Structure formats: C-alpha cells, structure tokens
Design the sequence.
C-alpha cells in the first residue's frame, strides 16, 4: 500500500511539472490580450486645429485704420534705349504710404528705386553690361475693392516722374554710343494694385503687380513690375478714427 501511494504521488507531481511550460506562456498571452483589449477601448487623443489661433486673430481685422505703410522688394522690366529691344530686369525697393479717407477710398504716395545691369550695343570700349538705375516718385488714388478677414484687394492708379540714370558706368562716353538713352526724367504711370494676405489686424503680406508706363527718349515704354513685402496698418486708440461710410 505504501509503495502504491508513493507511485501515485510521483505520477501526479510529474504531470504537474509537464504542464508548467505550456500553461505559463498561455497565462502571459491571456494577460497581454486583456491589456490590448483594454487599450483599444480608450478614446482617441483630441485633435488640435493649428488654425484656431490664426482665426481668432483675424477676427479682429476691421479696416478702420487711418494710415498704412508698405515696404517690399521689387522686380521691374526696363527698356533703357532705342536699340535695346530686350531691355533689362532690374531689382529694387517699393515703398508706399496710404491715407484712408473712407474705408475703401484713400490717397497713396509711392517711391521706387530700381537697379541693375543691361546689355548694350557692340562698341569698341569693351563695355557690355553697364549699371543703370531708375528712381520713381508717384502719387494717386487707392480703392479697396474687396475686404475680408483673410485678405483684401486694393486697386491703385499712380502718376508722377521717373529719373533714369543711364551713364553711370560708361567711362565718360556718350550713352548713345551704346544704344542707351541719355540721363533724363520721364512721365510715369503705375496702374495695378495689391493682394493683402492678413496675418493680424495690423500686419499683412502684400503682393503688388503693376503696369508701368514711361516715355524716355520721347517713345513709349510699356513695362511690368511686381513687388512683395509687408504692409503695416497703423492702429490708433479706440475712437481716434471712425471711417466715413463707404
């Protein structure tokens, strides 16, 4: 009887040890599955709208400023001589200031400087690409055709003069020997406008294209200019300026 009991005990203990390698991984697998199931029931993380702050800022755009100023970098195609049909692409600065009398109607003053080199006619002096410059001063009317929270469209018609400085790098030779105009002042017109992309009630990114008319040498030049830069609307204390009805 004692031997039989000992044999039965050995069989039971051996069977238990044989089950351990399979039961332990199964228990861990069950625990892992339960954890994943618990995680899958968690709500997704909240989404963040990156435009919320910007939209709240633009909600204060009212176009009730009395003045605004603009400064940007410009690209301008110029024709500086009778024989230089290809012209030249100049670069420079575009500065504008506007006084708004109504929410849509204002008066604008504009100053521009354009600089660069231009290919000239063949010559015995070895000069191929002299430096030239044009300085413009104009004034006129601006009309805000569209105005909204994200952007505004402004049209303008400006008139004034343009001084062309064409002999700065000719070593004292006459500009006509290179196909260039002589230094002179030309009547100038800029017809165009701007797209103002608002970044805040005071600041906007401006894109300003223009048709430019000049008459250097008594001939008409029909050119194109575009500038990009920053517009700043001058903010006054509350009640300091109430624009007149449109």
Sequence:
């Amino acid at each position: 009887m004692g031997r039989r009991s000992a044999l039965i005990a050995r069989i039971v203990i051996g069977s238990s040890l044989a089950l351990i390698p399979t039961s332990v991984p199964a228990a861990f697998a069950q625990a892992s599955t339960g954890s994943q199931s618990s995680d899958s029931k968690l709500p997704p993380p909240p989404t963040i709208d990156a435009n919320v702050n910007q939209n709240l800022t633009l909600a204060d755009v009212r176009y009730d400023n009395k003045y605004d100023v603009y400064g940007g970098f410009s690209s301008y195609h110029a024709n500086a001589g009778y024989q230089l049909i290809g012209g030249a692409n100049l670069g420079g600065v575009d500065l504008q200031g506007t006084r708004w009398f109504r929410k849509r109607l204002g008066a604008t003053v504009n100053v521009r400087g354009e600089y660069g080199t231009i290919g000239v006619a063949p010559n015995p002096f070895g000069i191929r690409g002299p430096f030239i410059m044009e300085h413009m001063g104009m004034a006129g009317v601006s009309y805000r055709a569209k105005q909204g929270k994200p952007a505004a469209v402004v049209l303008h018609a400006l008139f004034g003069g343009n001084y062309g400085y064409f002999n700065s790098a000719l070593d004292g030779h006459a500009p006509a020997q290179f196909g260039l105009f002589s230094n002179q002042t030309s009547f100038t017109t800029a017809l165009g406008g701007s797209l103002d992309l608002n970044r805040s009630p005071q600041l906007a990114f401006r894109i300003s294209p223009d048709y430019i008319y000049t008459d250097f040498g008594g001939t008409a030049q029909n050119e194109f200019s575009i500038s990009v830069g920053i517009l700043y609307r001058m903010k006054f204390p509350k009640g300091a300026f109430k624009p007149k009805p449109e």
Remarks:
- Residues 64-233 form a domain with the Porin fold (CATH 2.40.160.20).
- The helical segments are 2-40, 52-58.
